[in-house]
Amino acid sequence: MAAIVRRGLGVASLVAEKFDFKILVSPKQAHNQKKRVVNKENYSVRKSEIEFGMSFLECGNPRLLRWILQEKELYHGILRDLGRYDEETIVYVLSVLWDKVLIPDSLVPPSHRSVLFGVLHWNS
């Protein structure tokens, strides 16, 4: 799904409009589940969910960013367990947030930026 979102703004907007983000934050999905893939390596379902959520931010379009940041449950689920992820995933999440959302040039209003961290505060 992340690859589909990264194809462009039009596709990302369509996915954001039609996708039910609540299925990503169900209690069963919140744990780091593993499944077997063809090459016999473990693949993290949770890591693919994180990549999917962050791929919307990677598009970098201010209008899409403002809209997608309102999906509080999605980013709450990603940021809530940030300390449990492997180092590569933590660096990926924080670098995308820094490069696309937290810098002043992102054109995302501070009120929308605070959604990411306000959700953590109120639900802790």
UniProtKB/TrEMBL annotation:
GO BP, one annotated term: maturation of 5.8S rRNA from tricistronic rRNA transcript (SSU-rRNA, 5.8S rRNA, LSU-rRNA)
Domain URB1 N-terminal: 2-117
A GO CC term attached to the entry: nucleolus
Protein name: URB1 N-terminal domain-containing protein
Superkingdom of origin: Eukaryota
Pfam families found in the cross-reference section: Npa1
